Amino acid sequence: MPIVKTRNENFFKKWTPEMAYVLGFFAADGSMYCTRRKTYFIEFQITDKDLLLQIQILLGSNHKITERPPRRSHQKPIFRLQIGCKKIFYDLAKLGFTQNKSKTVGLPPVPNKYFRDFLRGYFDGDGNVMFGYYRKEERKYLSKFFATRFTSGSRLILDDIKKRLNSIGTNGSLHFASGAWRLSYGAHDSEKLFQYMYHAGNAEGLIYLERKYKIFVGARNAVVAQFG
């Protein structure tokens, strides 16, 4: 007998930290589409299967996670979760999402209480931490470099995120490079973002991409002491 597919059709109807996180991740790395037969799907794709499993559980889904092998030796496999549900599709539409949203997506109406969780989800999809060393021409010693960046095909969502983050005292820089919009924050602001997204370092019980969290922790531990 065929397996009955399950999903929480009401997941995106009520704001919770978990809903806000998944919505943020969907804004970055999710997609939605309606077929010619009027069937409705949402989809997540990511190289980190463990996080996708957590999202699958939160959505109450038993849909199969499929794997696409890497096309080149240096690449990672991509894992995909596709859920068919008209109600979820339309709930996301009510929140402002559309098909082929990569260059037009804006920031949904996230309540202030849950914005840090939304931002953490968006960061896990389209954010990264940059850390390293560089040498200024006039100096003989190496300086440390620590920054955070969000990347999107849509200027609208990054501009809205930048405005919302002004409330925590950050001052990001928005610019276009290599075919995408980039919202970048320096070392001081990156520390503020870490405290904000990971609830002042108390990340226990939160959903997040462990790989990026560890990079963030390692970078800030290497340089944050010099900022006091």
Q: What structural class results from the helix and strand content?
A: alpha+beta
Largest sheet: 4 strands, antiparallel
Q: What's the number of extended β-strand segments?
A: 8
With strands numbered from the N-terminus, the spatial order across the biggest sheet is 1-2-4-3
Q: According to CATH, what is the class of the largest domain?
A: Alpha Beta
Number of domains: 2
> Count of helical segments?
7
CATH 2nd-level architecture of the largest domain: Roll
- Report the radius of gyration as a whole number of Å: 19 Å
Q: What do you see in this structure?
A:
The chain is of the alpha+beta class. It folds into two domains: 17-102, Homing endonucleases (Endonuclease I-creI, Roll), CATH 3.10.28; 117-227, Roll (Endonuclease I-creI), CATH 3.10.28. It has helices at 17-29, 49-58, 86-94, 115-126, 155-165, 187-197, 210-223; strands at residues 30-34, 40-46, 65-68, 78-84, 127-134, 143-152, 173-177, 180-185. Strands 1-2-4-3 form a four-stranded antiparallel sheet. It has a four-stranded antiparallel sheet with strand order 5-6-8-7. A hairpin with an 8-residue loop joins strand 5 and strand 6 (143-152). Helix 1 (17-29) runs parallel beside helix 4 (115-126) and helix 6 (187-197) crosses helix 7 (210-223). The longest helix is centred in the last third of the chain and has 14 residues, at 210-223. The mean pLDDT is 90.
